C-alpha cells in the first residue's frame, strides 16, 4: 500500500498533528498511533505491508516534525484529545492500533468513545521509565540529545553498550534518534504523572494485545504488558514470534501480516 496524502489537523494549544494516509484516503480503515522515539515515517514499512483495510492512517504525534510542538500544557490528556481529533476526522475508522506509549493512548481513548477494534503492541504504563526521568531532564536541559538516546536505550530498554555503539555507527539513523528524543522527557513524565485507570478499552468491541516473543515476562516491556493485561480483561493475547519491542523496525512485514490476520471481520 502506497502513501497517498498527508493531512494536517489543528489540535489544542495552537499546535497541530499530521497524518500520513496510505491507500484510499476516504475509505474506512486502520489508524496507527506510534509511541516514544518513533514517528509516522518510522511506520511506513508496516503500513505498506497492510492490506486488510482499504486505508491506513499513521498519526505523527505532536512533538515530532512535521507536526507541531508539545506546548507547555502537554499531558497524557493532551494525547487522548489529539487522537480524538484524528478519529473525528477519520470518522469511518474500523480499527485503532497503537505501539508502546501509543498503545496506552489507544486503550485510554477506547474508554471514552466506542471503537470496533483496538490493537496494542506492548503498551506501557506507569511506572515505566520513571527511574530515568532525572537523567532525561538533565540531558534535555543541556540539549544533550546523544545522552538522551543513550539513556532510553541503556537505562530504560536495557540494551547493551555494544547495541548503542552499533546504533551510533549508523550516522543517519543516529541523527533520527537524536531528533526523536526531543519530547522524550515530557512524554515519559506525562506517562508517569497520574495513576492509570483500573479498566481500559471499556468501549472497544474487540481488543487484541500483542507482545514480542522475546519480551514475555521480562522487564521492562513484558512486565508493563502484564500490568496492562490485568486492566483489559476481555483482550485476546497474541505473540510476534522472534521479536522484541522493535518489531516495526526489525520485522515490519511480519508485523503487517499479523495485523492483517487480526482484522475484525
From TrEMBL:
Keyword Hydrolase assigned: yes
Q: AB hydrolase-1 domain spans which residues?
A: 30-252
Query: Does the keyword Hydrolase belong to this entry?
Result: yes
Give the InterPro entries listed for this entry.
AB_hydrolase_1, AB_hydrolase_fold
Entry's Gene Ontology molecular function annotations:
hydrolase activity
Which of UniProt's keywords are assigned here?
Hydrolase
The protein depicted here goes by the name Alpha/beta hydrolase
Q: Which organism is the protein's source?
A: Streptomyces populi
Amino acid at each position: 500500500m502506497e502513501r497517498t496524502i498527508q493531512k494536517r489537523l489543528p489540535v489544542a494549544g495552537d499546535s497541530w498533528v499530521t497524518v500520513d494516509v496510505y491507500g484510499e484516503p476516504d475509505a474506512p480503515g486502520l489508524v496507527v498511533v506510534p509511541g516514544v522515539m518513533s514517528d509516522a515515517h518510522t511506520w511506513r514499512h508496516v503500513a505498506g505491508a497492510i492490506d486488510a483495510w482499504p486505508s491506513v492512517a499513521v498519526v505523527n504525534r505532536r512533538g515530532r516534525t512535521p507536526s507541531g510542538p508539545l506546548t507547555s500544557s502537554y499531558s497524557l490528556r493532551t494525547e487522548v484529545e489529539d487522537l480524538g481529533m484524528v478519529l473525528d476526522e477519520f470518522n469511518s475508522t474500523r480499527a485503532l492500533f497503537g505501539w508502546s506509549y501509543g498503545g496506552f493512548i489507544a486503550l485510554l481513548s477506547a474508554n471514552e468513545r466506542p471503537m470496533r477494534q483496538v490493537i496494542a503492541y506492548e503498551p506501557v504504563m506507569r511506572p515505566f521509565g520513571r527511574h530515568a526521568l532525572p537523567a532525561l531532564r538533565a540531558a534535555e536541559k543541556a540539549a544533550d540529545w546523544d545522552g538522551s538516546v543513550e539513556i532510553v536505550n541503556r537505562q530504560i530498554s536495557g540494551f547493551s553498550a555494544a547495541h548503542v555503539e552499533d546504533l551510533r555507527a549508523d550516522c543517519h539513523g543516529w541523527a533520527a534518534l537524536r531528533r526523536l528524543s526531543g519530547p522524550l522527557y515530557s512524554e515519559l513524565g506525562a506517562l508517569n504523572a497520574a495513576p492509570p485507570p483500573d479498566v481500559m478499552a471499556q468501549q472497544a468491541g474487540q481488543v487484541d494485545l500483542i507482545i514480542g516473543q522475546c519480551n514475555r515476562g521480562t522487564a521492562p516491556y513484558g512486565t508493563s504488558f502484564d500490568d496492562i493485561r490485568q486492566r483489559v480483561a476481555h483482550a485476546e493475547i497474541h505473540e510476534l514470534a522472534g521479536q522484541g519491542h522493535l518489531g516495526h523496525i526489525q520485522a515490519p512485514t511480519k508485523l503487517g501480516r499479523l495485523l492483517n490476520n487480526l482484522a475484525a471481520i
